[in-house]
TrEMBL record, chain A:
GO cellular component terms given for this protein: GINS complex
Domain DNA replication complex GINS protein PSF3 N-terminal: 11-62
Gene Ontology annotations of biological process type: mitotic DNA replication initiation
Family to which the UniProt record says this protein belongs: Belongs to the GINS3/PSF3 family.
Entry protein name: DNA replication complex GINS protein PSF3
UniProt keyword annotations, A-Z: DNA replication, Nucleus
Chain segments carrying region Disordered: 179-212
Function: Required for correct functioning of the GINS complex, a complex that plays an essential role in the initiation of DNA replication, and progression of DNA replication forks. GINS complex is a core component of CDC45-MCM-GINS (CMG) helicase, the molecular machine that unwinds template DNA during replication, and around which the replisome is built. The GINS complex plays an essential role in the initiation of DNA replication.
Signal peptide: none
One of the Pfam families matching this protein, by short name: Sld5
UniProtKB/TrEMBL annotation, chain B:
One Pfam assignment: Sld5
GO cellular component, one term: GINS complex
Compartments, record wording: Chromosome; Nucleus
Protein name (Swiss-Prot/TrEMBL): DNA replication complex GINS protein PSF1
Taxonomic source organism: Hermetia illucens
Amino acid sequence: MGSRSYFPSYYSVDDIFVTQEKISCQVSSRLLKMGFLDPGCETDHLEPGKIVKLPLWYVKELKINNPYLIIQIPELYKNVHNAICEAESTNIDLGKMNMQYYEYGRYLASFDRNHSLGRILYETCRQRVRHLLTISKNTVDEIKSENKMDSIERGLYEAGIRTNTLYTNWLQQKNSKIRPSELVQEHSKKRKRFTLSDDEMSSSLQSTKRSM
Amino acid sequence: MFGDKAFELVKELQRTSETLPPFDDDGVRQVLEEIKAIFEENCQQAAAYSHSGDRTLWPLLSFRHAAIQRNKRCLLAYLYQRLQRIKAIRWEFGPIVPNDIKNSFCEPETQWFNSYSKSLATYMRSIGDGQGIDLTGDLKPPKSLFVEVRCLEDYGKFELEDGEVILLKKNSQHYLPRSQVESLIRLGILQHIS
């Protein structure tokens, strides 16, 4: 739903999902009355040195040199970096690590004191996109549920397959039939499911009545 | 945690892709209450700060403020995504929407749908040299004036523009003017066969 823009819009659902992620932060000065952020904390306040998990929608408002919290870059990105150096990046299962690998990384890049995260993101993307192009060109019929992708890559992959099918259909002049709209199809499927379950309900009711 | 309820709203909407789930009155109300509660606490502390000049509570204040904005964003995104879907429904189903979808609208959404539908109809009447153009029709370039169709359900009587009335019975086949039956095909009542 909606288009994917490089800068997510205010209403972007994808971006809302990314900013829900939790990030480990180390407390660097005494934070009064913020103990509720740490479920294991017994005092009202957060003491320096404690690690708390905070949602990205708060963390992204902070500055990198703020006096209260130090943001810790997740291990995930370091692991990917190693994997890129050692093996084919196309084999990394990004979807399993984080469905929003790139978007998430983009937010964290501004908190990375080593300035390496940006490069890692760029390298992973560069190495994987060409592979995406190849597989989307070679998938003909159904979209396979390949789970090695993050959500942006999946979007690219599906768009690739769709364009390819449209193109072949046009070449073979298959497209002149009027088809029912997709929304209508989904709706009628749903309606069928409902009526079916209603039937099952009534039949099971009858059978229970009979047994009584 | 603050903001979790608001996120649930958006997540739930995303889970039911395409068609419209019923409007979550209760969820929206809970989020609004949470916003109000946070706002009042923040107001109190901000007032206390202006008396004492004590900055120790600033991190808490900014965290709560971010939470208010987060809640607001989720709520607006929820409403906006629903509007987008309702808009799509108008284009796909036409001005008459099946009842079970209509029941998922909340009151302002019904009003919005009606006025959107009206604006769209007025616009379509106004273009095309006074004749009007149905923008929801002819989505693919027509290759022939007539099409062969099979009826998928008992629809009943259907009057063509020239006044002829035909009976659309399940599994009957007809040869009809393309422009007049396209919307029925889109609604899944007729099937286009070649």
